[in-house]
Amino acid sequence: MAKAEKELLAKAGSWAFLVGIIVAVIAGIFWIYIPEEIEGYISAFLAILGLIVGIVAFFGLGTITKEEVPNFLIAAVVIVGIGATASLFGGIPKPVGWLFENIAKALAVFIAPAAGLLAIRAIWDIGKD
């Protein structure tokens, strides 16, 4: 792969990461106003962006370098765990409770595919030694 192609792929991964975080936070804030028919599309968009980030990082490009993978995986486990238990925020008075809940779920949908791919890469790297 040529240097220009690697730089382009790295930029795409960086932009996908930035756009994914922004879309997840904005979608989380306005989730209660989003029609049910569109919720699936937003979740799919976030998951695809997470997959792009994961693929780019899998090949050692983009915002997540090989040295940062362990820290990313730890942070991803926390974010996905919070997203999985986000319904617990429902006990917090509105609007704070649903805001935390929806942002946590949207971030988890975005981060999970990238974390899955990087976890596979980490296991592969450990196993090949």
Nearest-integer average pLDDT = 89
- What's the main sheet like? none
* Rg from Cα: 16 Å
Separation of termini?
Answer: 25 Å
Taken in chain order, the helices and strands follow as: HHHH
| Count of separate DSSP helical elements | 4
Helix content: over 70%
Shape: globular
Strand tally is 0
Quaternary structure state of the chains depicted: single chain
Count of discrete domains:
1
Poorly predicted ranges (pLDDT <50, ≥5 residues)?
none
Relative strand content: under 5%
Which structural class should the secondary elements be placed in? Answer: mainly alpha
Index terms:
4 helices; mainly alpha; 129 residues; single chain
Q: How does this structure look, described?
A:
- Helix content is 78%, strand content 0%.
- The protein has 129 residues and is mainly α.
- It has one domain (3-128).
- The mean pLDDT is 89.
- The chain has helices spanning 3-30, 36-58, 69-84, 96-128.
- It is built from four helices and no strands.
Explain briefly what this protein structure is.
The protein is mostly helical and 129 residues long.
Task: Give the topology.
Elements: H1 3-30, H2 36-58, H3 69-84, H4 96-128
Helix pairs in contact: 1-2, 1-4, 2-4, 3-4
